[in-house]
Amino acid sequence: MRDNFAKILVSILIAVSALALGFFTISLLQHKKVVVPAPVVVEQKQNPERKIIGYSVEKRTIEAYVYNGGGLASAMKKILFVGGIHGGYEWNSVVLAYDLMDYLRANPDVIPANLEVTVIPNANPDGVFKIIGKEGRFNLTDVPAIGDQSPGRFNAHNVDLNRNFDCNWSVKGMWQGKSVGTGTAAFSEPESQALRDYILANKPDVAVFYHSAANAVYGSQCKNGILPETTKVLNVYAKAAGYKAVPVFDAYKVNGASEDWLASQNIPAITVELASHKTVEWEKNLLGIRALLEFYK
Ligand SMILES: [Zn+2]
Fold first, then answer.
1. How far is the CA of 48 from the centre of ligand 1 (A)?
2. How remote is the CA of residue 211 from the centroid of ligand 1, in Å?
3. Count of CB atoms within 10 A of residue 297's CB?
4. Which of 74, 103, 230, 238 has the most CB atoms less than 10 A away?
């Protein structure tokens, strides 16, 4: 009886030890698993890469789409296109930027290896919403055929964003013969802050801003006159696209314009003004864009 009891006890001890050893081994293996390096996953960069660069007063997203030519990052030249800073009043500048995005997506080979192209299609989404009544991408059929579209020029604080940048900023802003809101200070508005921050962080080599409807291409300058490269780019784009080239906007005095602030940052910037508030002029502008890609190749 006692012998039997001892045998059972020994068996139990053996079983428990075996179990403990098993658990120890499993936990050791599991521990080992953690230290085994995971297979390296090369993350394929999306082309285009979509970035949210900020939010409007009414919290709509301001987006940038980055198309990469695929060359070495250190040798990259950067071109920035911006539509819609004057919102729904100049909705055609947003449609033109959408057309450019579609074109770059369908024809990625037109971007030379050394170029990175960024499109910010809608720099004033609240102003666009005021007229189009739609969030995000819209079509020509969404554009109302009648009605005064000038309120769509401003952001939700009733500020003209192209009078809110830090180059000769003034509390008094002019648009044609009218007085317009310029904000409480330079860069008081979230939309202009988003553009400023994106530009300072990414340092484009050149920037093109789309507007309507002065039917010409303009250069930019802040306190030190027009940059020599701005003059070159202005002529390249205007000649290819068939617009008149005008070194400096001189129809009336403009304070706090985005393009002029870029000049103060030593970044060449041009303004392309479409011929009307209703035409998109894609074919002409494609020629200008392709000439610019060629210029920076
Ligand atoms: Zn404009």
1. 26
2. 4
3. 12
4. 230
pLDDT, residue 18, reads 52
Phi, psi torsion values for 113, nearest 5 degrees:
-55, -30
- CATH number of the domain bearing residue 89: 3.40.630.10
Classify residue 23: in a domain, yes or no. Answer: no
Report how many domains make up the chain.
Answer: 1
Cα 90 to ligand 1 centroid, rounded to whole Å:
6
Instruction: Write down the pLDDT at residue 251.
Output: 82
pLDDT tens-place string over residues 222-268: 999 999 999 999 999 999 999 999 998 888 889 999 999 999 999 99
What pLDDT is attached to residue 28?
44
How far does residue 22's CA lie from ligand 1's centre (Å)? 75
Predicted TM-score (pTM) of the model is 0.85
How far is ligand 1, taken at its centre, from the CA of residue 44, in Å? 37
Say if residue 171's pLDDT is above 90. yes
Q: Ligand 1 centroid vs 52 CA: distance in angstroms?
A: 23
**Residue 3 located in a structural domain:** no
Within a domain: residue 44?
A: no
Residue 54 in domain: yes
Q: How far does the centroid of ligand 1 lie from the alpha carbon of residue 35, in Å?
A: 58
Q: How many Cα atoms are found within 13 Å in the side-chain-facing hemisphere of 184?
A: 4
